[in-house]
Automatic annotation (TrEMBL):
<keyword id="KW-1133">Transmembrane helix</keyword>
<keyword id="KW-0472">Membrane</keyword>
<feature type="transmembrane region" description="Helical">
    <location>
        <begin position="59"/>
        <end position="81"/>
    </location>
</feature>
<keyword id="KW-0812">Transmembrane</keyword>
<feature type="transmembrane region" description="Helical">
    <location>
        <begin position="102"/>
        <end position="132"/>
    </location>
</feature>
<protein>
    <recommendedName>
        <fullName>ABC transporter permease</fullName>
    </recommendedName>
</protein>
<feature type="transmembrane region" description="Helical">
    <location>
        <begin position="235"/>
        <end position="260"/>
    </location>
</feature>
<feature type="transmembrane region" description="Helical">
    <location>
        <begin position="163"/>
        <end position="183"/>
    </location>
</feature>
<feature type="transmembrane region" description="Helical">
    <location>
        <begin position="195"/>
        <end position="215"/>
    </location>
</feature>
Length: 270
């Protein structure tokens, strides 16, 4: 049934989201290219140490991953918000059933959000191979970026198979982008304001950031997605914390989707 929703996605929100994501990515790429051009030697640099998700010397990556929840949600959340305002969702629910419709919107939003952010990161990452040699990072030569187990997931893989580590990082970021887009779509069943619907994922991230400050975990392990979506973060990371937060958010989205679908189905059949 998802193909029904994919066919109805408007190009303008998709292009807007992708354009903004690429704009931020290109700014970071351009800044790094200028830095590379000014250096007399770049023997210790490689795409694995300078691409967007690894750049630790610029505010641009922070801005990118902070805005991911908003930009990833634009296409899917805009679609369901518009359909609710025009009551098209009620027609779909009467013909297809509340649960099928709710999950159709959810899957569409997840795939779009993941594809937009994942695609942007892939373009940025492979773009750096046009500027720098394909060299494995070295712990001592690249000590300035401080990639250690405290702030990087699977750090051993980073030094032995950096390509696979980067791709795993992109997959994690894409997954969370899809979750943020899905959260906004799930909240659309309960919110009438289109702006609040699109911004729901961003508000979730801001809420987690506040909770991370006020209710720190042992060893101050971060549970903020904008930290662990990056290949190497400026915060303490824990694989178990990342897995737990991902599972909790995924279950919350599923619960909101089922409740929203059933509530709207009940209203449509009254």
């Amino acid at each position: 049934m998802s193909h029904l929703f994919f066919r109805r996605i408007e190009r303008r929100p998709v292009l807007l989201s992708f354009s903004l994501l690429m704009l931020i990515s290109l700014i970071q790429f351009g800044q790094s290219a200028l830095q590379i051009a000014k250096r007399s030697s770049v023997f210790h640099d490689s795409p694995y140490t300078m691409w967007l998700s690894m750049d630790q010397f610029s505010f641009i990556p922070i801005l990118f991953f902070l805005l991911v929840p908003l930009l990833a949600a634009i296409p899917g959340a805009t679609l369901i918000a518009k359909d609710r305002q025009t009551r098209f969702t009620q027609q779909l629910i009467l013909r297809r059933g509340g649960m099928r419709v709710a999950w159709g919107y959810l899957v569409t939003s997840f795939v779009l959000g993941a594809a937009l952010v994942g695609g942007t990161l892939l373009i940025n990452f492979f773009g750096f191979f046009l500027l720098l040699p394909n060299l494995k990072p070295d712990f001592f030569l690249n000590l300035n970026i401080a990639v250690m187990s405290q702030d990087t997931l699977w750090v051993g893989l980073y030094y032995t198979h950096p390509l696979w580590h980067a791709l795993a990082s992109i997959l994690l970021a894409a997954t969370w982008s899809g979750l943020f887009a899905s959260f906004a779509t799930a909240m659309a069943w309960f919110l009438k304001n289109r702006f609040l619907t699109v911004a729901a994922g961003l508000l979730l991230q801001i809420g987690l950031m506040a909770a991370n400050l006020l209710l720190p975990l042992p060893a101050h392990a971060s549970f903020v997605p904008s930290d662990f979506m990056r290949e190497s973060a400026g915060a303490t990371l824990s694989g178990s914390v990342v897995a737990s937060v991902t599972a909790i958010v995924a279950l919350a989205i599923a619960a909101l989707t089922m409740i929203g679908g059933r509530v709207r189905a009940y209203e449509s059949n009254r």
